[in-house]
Write a structure and sequence with these properties.
The protein is an alpha/beta fold and 404 residues long. The protein has two domains: 176 residues, 3-Layer(aba) Sandwich (Rossmann fold), CATH 3.40.50.2000; 194 residues, Glycogen Phosphorylase B (Rossmann fold). The chain is built from 15 helices and twelve strands. The strands form two sheets. Strands 3-2-1-4-5-6 form a six-stranded parallel β-sheet, sandwiched between helices. Strands 9-8-7-10-11-12 form a six-stranded parallel β-sheet, with helices on both faces. Strand 11, helix 13 and strand 12 form a beta-alpha-beta unit. The longest helix has 18 residues.
């Protein structure tokens, strides 16, 4: 069989953004300095929002979208994001257009070709305003610049040079939650609006219900998200901890467990699920890599609770008002805690935590060899906190579960 070339990893793309991105920003300085600032007193008709990385970040962006809808009534609102996020972005239903950046190709020349095509499409978009919600990537600043929009805004930091390619800059506050930083960049004031959830279609709910109901044991289920996404695998709570937690939910609490994760981490999730054996037949279901984004949301929506590493499904579950426990270690919950009525975080940081930050593209190499910050989170406390959230949600007349 012919070999299939794997696309360049996100880590390699981010490192290229950090190195070659500086070169591109420097090369654009003459155009920045000598271009004629266009001023428009007319109405804002087309607005572009830029957010490349992560469905979790897109979920946290939703209050800022509502701010921009209010600030620019009647304007067409577009989102520029990566191809792997487009289904989630479209499913949220907040944007009039989703512009896709597809750079998951196996060679650097093809990446360059894809970027040039993207920049040409952005130039033809004739945007009046551009809001760059990427933290400190150079390619997003370049994308905002090449639109030719007379007004663009992005985050500013003394630690990351992006060539001052935005016409306006807002200071990023590392002591604020990411959603609040997004809100401020959009010009929002006061409290955040609640997150806008991804609501699955009836067909997606039916598909998940069929999978869940095929199990011979019909009990409420807890979703266990043992993955952490392609970036920052240090955010994983140990597999053996997840396995022991699953055993307690099933054997002590009469619940089922459903395992989720991305296709690339299916093997890791299966390892966690196998470590939880033996469990009674039908009490453990492994769905990692098998669900569309809409089906994932339907599964989360119907759960009694979700226990998750610090990753996208944690934020999606919280937005759906599902009892959600987030496990933190390398990254701080000050910036990334799940936002919702029934949420909790467990965080036992040693001196070296947090070691992941937005200034370094959220890349980390654990100084201790393994993430002691996560290892130190005990199964007992995760188990107890999850049950507390389930009870609290039930006392507020939340139907648990929604799809048993």
């Amino acid at each position: 069989m012919p070999r299939t070339s794997r696309p360049l990893s996100m880590e390699r793309l981010q490192r290229a953004d950090s190195s070659w991105g500086r070169v591109v920003c420097l090369a654009l300085q003459p155009w920045r300095l000598f271009r004629r600032r266009k001023r428009s007193n007319g109405p804002v008709r087309r607005v572009l929002m830029i957010k490349f990385w992560g469905i979790g970040s897109l979920q946290l962006l939703t209050p800022a979208v509502l701010v921009l809808r209010e600030r620019h009534p009647g304007a067409e609102l577009a989102l520029l994001t990566l191809s792997q996020n487009q289904a989630f972005a479209r499913g949220l239903g907040l944007w009039d257009e989703v512009v896709v950046a597809d750079v998951r190709v196996p060679s650097w020349p093809r990446v360059v070709v894809r970027l040039l095509d993207l920049f040409w499409r952005l130039r033809r978009g004739r945007y009046d305003r551009v809001y760059d919600f990427e933290f400190f990537t150079r390619v997003s600043a370049v994308a905002a610049f090449v639109t030719g929009a007379p007004w663009t805004v992005g985050f500013a930091s003394e630690r990351v040079w992006r060539g001052a390619l935005h016409t306006e800059r807002v200071q990023f506050n590392r002591y604020w939650h990411v959603a609040r930083n997004f809100h401020a960049l959009a010009g929002g004031e006061g409290d955040l609006d609640p997150l806008v959830p991804f609501l699955p279609t009836p067909a997606e709910r039916a598909s998940v219900a069929a999978r869940v109901r095929t199990a011979p044991v019909q009990r409420p289920y807890v979703v266990l998200n043992a993955n952490a996404g392609e970036l920052s695998l240090e955010r994983r709570w140990p597999s053996e901890h997840f396995a022991r937690l699953a055993l307690r939910f099933v054997l002590e609490d009469g619940l089922r467990v459903v395992w989720i994760g991305g296709k690339d981490e299916r093997e890791h999730v299966e390892l966690s699920a196998r470590a939880a054996q033996p469990l009674p037949s039908g009490t453990s279901l492994q769905l990692a890599g098998e669900l569309s984004i809409g089906e994932l949301c339907a599964l989360l929506e119907g759960a009694a609770a979700v226990v998750s590493n610090d990753s996208g499904p944690m934020h999606i579950a919280a937005a759906l008002d599902v009892p959600t426990v987030g496990l933190f270690g390398p990254e701080t919950p000050v910036m990334y805690a799940p936002l919702g009525r029934h949420t909790a975080v467990l965080y036992r940081p040693p001196q070296c935590s947090p070691c992941i930050n937005v200034h370094d593209n959220k890349l980390s190499t654990c100084a201790l060899g393994r993430p002691e910050c996560l290892v130190s989170i005990e199964v007992d406390e995760v188990h107890a906190r999850t049950l507390q959230l389930i009870d609290a949600a039930a006392s507020e007349d939340r139907a648990v579960p929604r799809h048993a």
